[in-house]
Amino acid sequence: MNSDELVELGQQLRVDSVRAAAAAGSGHPTSSMSAADLMAVLLANHLRYDFDQPDHPGNDRFVLSKGHASPLLYSAFKAAGAIDDDELLTFRKLGSRLEGHPTPQRLPWVETATGSLGQGMPIGVGIALAGKRLDHADYRVWVLCGDSELAEGSIWEAAEHAGYEHLDNLTVIVDVNRLGQRGATRHGHDLDAYARRFRAFDWHTIEIEGHDVDAVDRAYGEAISTTGQPTAIIARTLKGKGVKATEDREGLHGKPLKDADEAIEELGGVRDLRVRVHAPPATPAPRTAGRDGLDLPRWDKGEEVATRDAYGKALAALGAAHGDVVALDGEVGDSTRSEFFAKEHPERYFECYIAEQQMVATAVGMSRRGWVPYASTFAAFLTRAYDFVRMAAVSGSGLNLNGSHSGVSIGQDGPSQMGLEDLAMMRAIHDSTVLYPSDANQTAKLVAAMADLDGVRYLRTSRGESPVIYGPDEEFPVGGSKVLRASDGDRLTIVAAGVTLHEALRAADALHEEGIPVRVIDLYSVKPVDRDTLRRAAEETGCLLTVEDHREEGGLGDAVCDAFVDGRPTPRLVRLAVRTMPGSASPEEQLHAAGIDAESIAASARLLVEEAVVR
Amino acid sequence: MNSDELVELGQQLRVDSVRAAAAAGSGHPTSSMSAADLMAVLLANHLRYDFDQPDHPGNDRFVLSKGHASPLLYSAFKAAGAIDDDELLTFRKLGSRLEGHPTPQRLPWVETATGSLGQGMPIGVGIALAGKRLDHADYRVWVLCGDSELAEGSIWEAAEHAGYEHLDNLTVIVDVNRLGQRGATRHGHDLDAYARRFRAFDWHTIEIEGHDVDAVDRAYGEAISTTGQPTAIIARTLKGKGVKATEDREGLHGKPLKDADEAIEELGGVRDLRVRVHAPPATPAPRTAGRDGLDLPRWDKGEEVATRDAYGKALAALGAAHGDVVALDGEVGDSTRSEFFAKEHPERYFECYIAEQQMVATAVGMSRRGWVPYASTFAAFLTRAYDFVRMAAVSGSGLNLNGSHSGVSIGQDGPSQMGLEDLAMMRAIHDSTVLYPSDANQTAKLVAAMADLDGVRYLRTSRGESPVIYGPDEEFPVGGSKVLRASDGDRLTIVAAGVTLHEALRAADALHEEGIPVRVIDLYSVKPVDRDTLRRAAEETGCLLTVEDHREEGGLGDAVCDAFVDGRPTPRLVRLAVRTMPGSASPEEQLHAAGIDAESIAASARLLVEEAVVR
């Protein structure tokens, strides 16, 4: 398109943004209007995209990091012929694909859910990295950011990552409209404040007037021809641009225009320009990431193996069989044991350094490109990335997360390194799977099973060694459990997983000696939970004693309750969990101090039986 | 101390770090050895600190952001005479104050718990901001960072905040020892890579040789005399410095030295230098932050008020009565309504822009200086700061957090803006308090009550208006609940809070009309939970139906289970919660689609009664 046409297209995107928000009665037209020219030039002259084939491997990828400017995105989709005007006006209504903030669950042309600021760009970096190092394709990634979101640290984790990886297939466009939600940003229209930050992180930067379509056009061309560095285009714009009543005005964030009809007239009225978006280049050769026979590691019963070791070895084996599996780590691969994968498959291993948000964002981006990511760090440090995990679920991303060093049983390092909230955090994620193995063979089987699940899958591993209790051919279906001790006369049932399972077994054996038979269930699948087995144990033993190396809230104990919240008769429930703030001590001392070791379990069981709380 | 003495002191700190780790059999001596000279010069020549009066208002504040280098910190404490050699050798043992990573819960000279990297510096920024804008004291804040942790985005949120606020009372010392946990950092010994990043964020920077005590001494002097900007001292060091077997070697992170005796000899043997740390300046006038009569806002029954509005107004009133209350927000004060506080008390309001980690870090820092912070943003975006909240609990910080826009009931904005995991996340925090009011007067009372609690306190507020159902003089003790509908013949009990409480009341009234009396409990205190009232309801009605605008895991339903996990007979439990991924829709449509509106509640109750699941 020539300059005049681009100006017209920009106005059309503004008009349609105003119309969509007016029809909805809510939304962010002013944040759309500032970026309309930036979007018009990209759509008409630079983006290579086949809207009929959103999965086309040669497609460029566009990410709206400022997700609230969804009216602009949907107006662009309309201009490209992907949706019609009737659908545009369903914006934000029940059942519409056009949500307040875009999600790929509903619209095939959306790469990732945005709306929590500072996430689109990090995920864009992940897609660009996939393009360079996995897909070996020449698609470009374009990310449109707001200026407000540059205050998020995740942006600078991403800037660091992209600069270091020389991602010259990535262009970030910053819509510097000076105004955040409640007023001016820190840096207003000081474009250099943003540009010098990006430059410090080794980016190429271009500062432009964001409403000058020729300048925008030139900047995109310069970005495309820049090699060895990602490019940040810092564009001076006006929020609410094009309508006197809204232009550069405070207090109008996230509100439809007061007089939409007048504004549309001022913008030159409704248009119906149609953009013929450039087609992607011819399809590259299909990816060769095949799936061969899986040869998981095997351990003999009685061996002492840490589940983190089993994780690393199983992941390396999975990587050998599945060419689409990739691994990421937050600079603790020697602890999580993802280093085993790194050694065997260095070309599919991504060191994300101590930047957990960027690690998860990279995994989400790679998942979008069809790869199967396993991202590992200490369970405690995954809390750093909780918003990214939450949003991955909104995107419907397939994502494997591993948290090692869970619980007080890590020992001397103390509470800062102990994952004690991870089960609560991961269980609350929509459609998540939460797994917590207790032995090496079980870990290996679950690592393999995760690859084929939907949504966010979380595997919790432990630092210390524990005995192998299952044979290498045993199966561990997700949603299942294992009954390890059972008799007709069981007085109660101990439910445990991971480290506490071994304590539970020791306690059960001691109790058996004393003539107190108890059942023991290995609840390795914390979510979904094995309701049938728990219910049967409840009927047969009357009391469930849960034991977990986790806070008492949101973990194994609460998971067991899940089996009984449908109005059926409920067993007596007793819970052992970590209720104190641990200090430094040995693993054994920690388990004892927290009251979750074999002695504490046995003492609790005795008390329950003696006090006739249970039969 | 002169140069020779400083060199000796540095060696002593190394020797003591090696000894402490050797005695413990674990720990991070090599990470301590790299920073020993930096610490020696600070302790001997620049820090102003009275170890006998850690609360002295004039004390400088030292934060060990690289918390794993705790042997160095404890060795410095010993050199300053704060602990003796016997205690030094209790490092990492059960019951010792000298934990693997330092915490203020056990040691009075520790400002904040560290060990999750990238947190000490952000919290140091909070302390420095308190010094400038609240305490009006001239203490300095010194933060010792590792180079690896500069990959964390939280560091750059903090750099942005400190640069923008011109915190020239803050000095960050970066120990660039080139090696992270599993190998080299991204930038190795490229000091300028770090310096230019800090400069881009408007910091003064000084690059030095970190083992040259004269250079270090001059750099500290330059930092002290620099005005208008924080200073970052980027120091080139060697990990394991001083011992040939460890110096600049990979693979030795977090491990005691193999031959400690030999290393100690190589370092010149055990010394017993004692440092006379400079005293702080004379005590400034005591803070005038008094507490006058509290005049909370009042609403009449039947008024329609959003709890977020009540939060903002109550917070403003609390600020008028309590001079020590401060408020922070993540650039959404017009939505959370913390803007009401900002208007009345601008000198105690801190705009943290869209940087939730830094917002919580600032609050933690201010809390350490005796202020009572209330930090607000959308409930959904507090997920961004979960690691900081977790670590605040490790510190034992008093911290008030407010999450607005909770649940699907926010309406059209869609799932990215909906706090649906916040109760799970906050309940799992050690010693936390979790409150979820349903009406304006209740909100106001709880906002006031939070100020005097210990630990992390979380208040969940709602976007939409709801009727005032309590009089302004009603009391709402933390740990309590309110029984709003009750009769002898109640067939079951509905437990709800916030938005769903109003739905529950409507359902109960409809059921009453149909001849099905039900009890309704307002569970405004989600943690601690009112066990007595729940147990009584269980005994009297046999079935508890929980209804929450939150994911089914970790929220209100699980909190109710807390009342029944001590082996007592358990009632039948039924749970209504958000089990789908919402799209855009009106608040009413959202509640209905999630199955948590009055109609859904009534339908569930009818089913339970008709199917004779309950009596």
Protein architecture, described:
The structure is a homodimer of 615-residue chains. Chain A is α/β, with parallel strands linked by helices and 615 residues long. The first copy, chain A, has 3 domains: 3-266, Thiamin diphosphate (ThDP)-binding fold, Pyr/PP domains (Rossmann fold); 304-467, Thiamin diphosphate (ThDP)-binding fold, Pyr/PP domains (Rossmann fold, 3-Layer(aba) Sandwich), CATH 3.40.50.970; 482-608, Rossmann fold. In chain A, the strands form 4 sheets. Chain A has a 7-stranded mixed beta sheet with strand order 8-7-9-10-12-11-17, with helices on both faces. The first copy, chain A, has a 5-stranded parallel beta sheet with strand order 1-2-3-5-4, with helices on both faces. In chain A, helix 6 (120-135) runs parallel beside helix 7 (153-164). The longest helix of chain A has 22 residues, at 3-24. The radius of gyration of chain A is 27 Å and the shape is elongated. Chain A starts with a helix and ends in a 5-residue tail after the last helix. In chain A, 66% of the residues are buried.
